[in-house]
Design goal:
With 453 residues, the protein is α/β, with parallel strands linked by helices. The protein contains 17 helices and 13 strands.
């Protein structure tokens, strides 16, 4: 007999698609986003991004009201684009839909064509993205925006020596680190998107309305002539993959790699850069040696770690891998996305580590909420959480320490400077894991000692 019950999510472990879309556009130089929907959508996203990155975040809105919802929001979006160009004069405008616009069936491509017909002198490149909040998560929205960017910007057919590196939603600090490693290895790379400056800028007296950093249109135009593309995401669907699009349309060969966290994934990333002509410097060799030494330092403490890892698919998968390489057992690995292949891939990392630790119980789940994560964490006696500050309520209720190293971080400063990538970022994360276990052990020991006396 078929069940009449629906799968109810309580406090979902995910953000909405427009959040990812806007974040991706923030990695493009001279770009401003406008959300076609109600004002609440842009306010919600501005708040989340500004609190995490500790930077001012500008997102325009077409401000759909009841009238626009009933009769269509074409005039709202056209007026919004006119005002946006007047106030900001951007090089690029990202137009993203929201739940409301998608529900009433707004044709943003048609509206943009009408806008350009009305304003033939408009210089800004306008890029539409369909991103209904209920159609996926921040992860999907991020890659849909990147796919829209490479498919809407005219590419130069001339071949060049560049390497495209397409990154998922990583921190500005990690973005800088990827750029630095490529530079150290002597490679000319185009990072898409590059949020390293726009969402982690230095102090300036005068506020600039437009992002001064980021990947420029000129750089993006060269991606079609690049000699190779690396897509640092193991789970991006083919239909949303910028790398696959560049291969199909411009013949640029590509490879998908796991996010370089931990030893094996970072080695694979460095080795791929070497195969593309990069040189391993003494500095990079020293980074790896320090990481190996740190693994030895912390490994003996990590056997007591029973971790809950949650977040976007690439984050969760790569952090689980780091834990398993260092003797820590993730008893729960979770992502809010509906992610094909996530369960099988992550289970293959955990199972050998769990067998060594004689741990029988663990769970790997996608499309999950924090209520289920909490129940599993308690059932499997977890003693550490690794993810965003959205896990803080579980942490506070049950005394399980939370390492905040993913978006969003609302209750601490420095979310934009968190590093987990490559040897140095992995070392920082590994130290935090070991120190958390050590602190818990020392605290419990002292409590027992005080109780005796």
């Amino acid at each position: 007999m078929a069940s009449n019950y629906v799968n109810l999510n309580v406090n979902p472990c995910k953000m909405c698609m427009p959040m990812g879309t806007v974040t991706a556009f923030y990695g493009i130089r001279g770009c401003v986003s406008i959300l076609h929907g109600s004002q609440g959508c842009s306010t919600y996203i501005r708040r989340h991004m500004a609190t995490h990155y500790n930077e001012p975040v500008d997102i325009a809105s077409s401000s759909l009201t009841e009238q626009g919802t009933v009769f269509g929001g074409e005039s709202n979006l056209i007026k919004g684009l006119e005002n946006l160009i007047k106030l900001y004069n951007p090089e690029v405008i990202g137009v993203a839909t929201t739940c409301l616009a998608e529900t009433i069936g707004e044709d943003i491509n048609g509206i943009i064509k009408k806008f350009l017909a009305l304003h033939p002198d408009a210089k800004a490149k306008i890029i539409p993205v369909s991103s209904a909040g209920y159609g996926g998560t921040q992860y999907e929205g991020f890659f849909k925006a990147l796919k829209a960017i490479v498919s809407n910007i005219e590419m130069s057919p001339e071949k060049n020596d560049m390497i495209n590196i397409i990154v998922p939603l990583i921190s500005p600090a990690d973005t800088r680190h990827i750029k630095d490693i490529c530079k150290k290895m002597g490679l000319n790379c185009i990072i898409l998107p590059d949020i390293s400056e726009n969402l982690d800028g230095g102090y300036e007296k005068n506020y600039s309305k437009l992002p001064r950093g980021g990947t420029s249109i000129e750089e993006i135009a060269k991606m079609g002539g690049a000699r190779y593309t690396l897509e640092l995401s193991a789970f991006v669907p083919d239909e949303d993959s910028p790398a696959k699009y560049l291969k199909e349309v411009y013949g640029v060969p590509f490879e998908r790699l796991d996010l370089p966290v931990g030893l094996e994934f970072t080695d694979a990333f460095i080795e791929k850069l070497v195969s593309l002509g990069g040189k391993i410097t003494d500095e990079i060799k020293d980074m790896r040696k320090r990481y190996l030494d740190a693994m030895i330092d912390s490994h003996k403490y990590n056997a007591e770690c029973r971790a809950v890892v949650f977040g976007e698919p690439d984050f969760a998968s790569s952090v689980v891998k780091l834990c398993c390489e260092n003797g820590a057992v993730p008893v729960v690995a979770a992502t809010g996305s509906v992610c094909k292949g996530f369960k099988e891939k992550v289970e293959s990392y955990i199972r050998p580590a769990a067998e060594i630790a004689m741990e029988e119980n663990f769970a790997v789940l996608d499309d999950i909420d924090f209520e289920k994560i909490e129940n599993l964490a308690l059932g499997f006696k977890a003693n550490l959480m690794i993810g965003s500050s959205d896990g803080r309520r579980i942490s506070e209720r049950h005394g399980i320490e939370l390492i905040r190293c993913a978006f969003p971080v609302h209750d601490r400063v420095g979310g934009q400077r968190t590093r987990i990538l490559c040897y140095e970022g992995s070392l920082e994360l590994m130290d935090k894991i070991a120190n958390s276990i050590l602190a818990r052990k020392e605290e419990n020991f002292r409590h027992e000692a005080y109780e005796k006396y």
